[in-house]
């Protein structure tokens, strides 16, 4: 039996508990600034400070959830509604040809911030997705991008 077969037949390890000191929880509490583009009772959307392209936006639930697998169905539904609404605005704000929407779970799946979040990236024909470089984006540029998305959202947008 190969190791891949062994791992597929064993029980998954439980995920560590939610850490309320993660960076997104701190953004929700107002301890860390963020360029907010949309907020409702259940979710928050804001600009990714290490974007993989112009307009890279994140959507998070306000309820604590480490990832997709431990979020309750109501939280997931709220996140999905906001992702769709914000994705439409991102696509319009940037005149994008399409969108890439993705979500990571646990370190092996690529997750680095352990609060459920969904990435929304406007995409353009022939333009490759940038890699996460670890560098922070210019705050002025993020503010400009957030304003464009808020304008596309109309009067429902959260204040910056």
Which key phrases capture this entry?
single chain, 160 residues, alpha+beta, HIT family, subunit A, five-stranded antiparallel β-sheet, 4 helices, globular, disordered C terminus
Describe the structure.
By secondary structure, the chain is α+β, with helices and mostly antiparallel strands. The chain has one domain (19-152): HIT-like (HIT family, subunit A, 2-Layer Sandwich). 31% of the residues lie in helices and 16% in strands. It is built from four helices and five strands; from the N terminus they run ααβββαββα. It has a five-stranded antiparallel beta sheet with strand order 1-2-3-5-4. A hairpin with a 3-residue loop joins strand 1 (36-39) and strand 2. Helix 3 (73-94) packs across helix 4. The longest helix has 22 residues, at 73-94. It is globular, with a radius of gyration of 17 Å. The protein starts with a helix and ends in a 7-residue tail after the last helix. Residues 155-160 have low confidence and may be disordered.
